[in-house]
Amino acid sequence: MVRMQKQRGNSKYLSNCLKRLRSDMEETSEEQKRIKQGQIQVREKLEAVELECEQLQKEIKLIMHQSLNTQIRLAFMFQILKARKNQEFDKAAKVTVALRKLITRGNRQK
Question: Which parts of 1-110 fold into alpha helices (H)?
């Protein structure tokens, strides 16, 4: 009789341990699901940031190109004004032609 009570006690103890283990396994499983979802969200955000970075790099290159063209045009205009001031009209005409070609070429590229 004492032996049966010990077996029942052991059985209850094992049953309680199994319930606790199942509960812990469910919690672990839920935590793993949350972690996986978090990883997916982080990956999606990272991809979005990478795409935005690429777009910004393209825009920066475009702005740099436009800025360089503007500087070149301003340099030509300054040379034209300087040549006219010094009454070097033939030089002013040549630089004007070069500026027009540059502007025409820039318009074709757009």
Answer: 2-85, 89-109
Task: Report how many domains make up the chain.
Answer: 1
CA distance 101 to 47: 43
- The conformational region for residue 88 under phi > 0 = left, psi -120 to 50 = alpha, else beta, is beta
Domain that holds residue 96: 2-109
pTM for the structure as a whole: 0.61
Q: Cα(59)–Cα(51) distance, rounded to whole angstroms?
A: 12
CB burial of 62-93 (b: ≥16 within 10 Å; e: otherwise) equals eeeeeeeeeeeeeebeebbeebeeeeeeeebe
pLDDT digit string, tens, across residues 57-95: 999 999 999 999 999 999 999 999 999 999 999 999 999
Return d(Cα 57, Cα 50) in angstroms, integer.
11
Report the phi/psi class of residue 87: left, alpha or beta, with left for phi > 0 and alpha for psi in -120 to 50. left
